[in-house]
Amino acid sequence: MEFRDVVRRRRMVRNFDPDRAVPPEVLGRVLDHAVRAPSAGFSQGWGFLVIEDSADRDRFWTAATPGDTAENPWLTGMRRAPVIIVAHSNKDIYLDRYAEEDKAWEDRDESRWPVPYWHIDAGFASLLMLLTVVDEGLGACFFGIPPERIDAYRAEFGVPPVFLPIGAIALGYPEPDRRSPSLKRGRKPVDEVVHRGSWRA
Ligand SMILES: Cc1cc2nc3c(=O)[nH]c(=O)nc-3n(C[C@H](O)[C@H](O)[C@H](O)COP(=O)(O)O)c2cc1C
């Protein structure tokens, strides 16, 4: 697929064919592309948990979503995804990397980081996975784990506390779904968000 088509076709898919597995080579390419993402100082301070087994997926949805979701159509569609990839960031890997000789921020002072690159890089990796999924003819949705569920999620899957789940990607072959009501907002035109030369005027 042309790259421009991949970008234009990408949308969050929230319902999947539960009986169509993600081929291992496709999942392999998705993960391979994730680690091609750029990262500050080439820190690569990310980690990915891949959940494929049906019982494990059940454990994920129970741990990582609020308890009152029995009749939630969003969850019903998402639970049909045959694969979940949880992307994590690890701040310590960046602080350690930038304390090395070539960067020389031995104080590990977090005020040096007005923008938390550890989250940005895990986000870049996630976007590459989303685009790869489209290129492979599948669909995916990136979604957050609510803050009050993060500890339960970590405990369920043995994720070390230094890894923060920045979001999860459900993926599989798409089935018809309900578009997000957020889309009613419309896409902001380029000219509204791009400032050429100066932010004034
Ligand atoms: C950081 C981030 C968090 C998101 N969290 C959720 C979520 O929790 N649940 C969900 O259904 N979609 C989530 N989305 C998807 C957005 O709703 C979606 O990207 C947006 O409405 C634009 O639609 P599109 O991606 O289909 O073009 C998230 C997207 C991003 C980038």
Question: How does this structure look, described?
Answer:
The chain has 201 residues and is α+β, with helices and mostly antiparallel strands. Helices cover 37% and strands 13% of the residues. The chain is built from eight helices and four strands. The termini are far apart. The mean pLDDT is 96. The structure holds flavin mononucleotide. Flavin mononucleotide (FMN) is lined by residues 11-12, 14, 141-144, 167, 180, 182-183.
Give a nutshell description of this structure.
The chain has 201 residues and is α+β, with helices and mostly antiparallel strands. The chain has helices spanning 3-9, 24-34, 54-64, 73-78, 91-98, 117-135, 150-157, 190-193; strands spanning 46-51, 83-89, 139-143, 164-172.
Query: What integer value in Å does the Rg equal?
Result: 19 Å
Anisotropy-based shape: globular
Structural class: alpha+beta
In what order do the strands lie side by side in the largest sheet?
Answer: 1-2-4-3
| Poorly predicted runs of 5 or more residues | none
Largest sheet: 4 strands, antiparallel
Give the CA-CA distance, first to last residue: 39 Å
Q: Which cofactor or ligand species appear?
A: flavin mononucleotide
State mean pLDDT (0 to 100 scale). 96
Give a count of the beta strands, DSSP E runs of length 2 or more. 4
Helix content: 25-40%
Helix segment count?
A: 8
**Beta-strand residue percentage:** 5-15%
- The H/E string reads HHEHHEHHEHEH
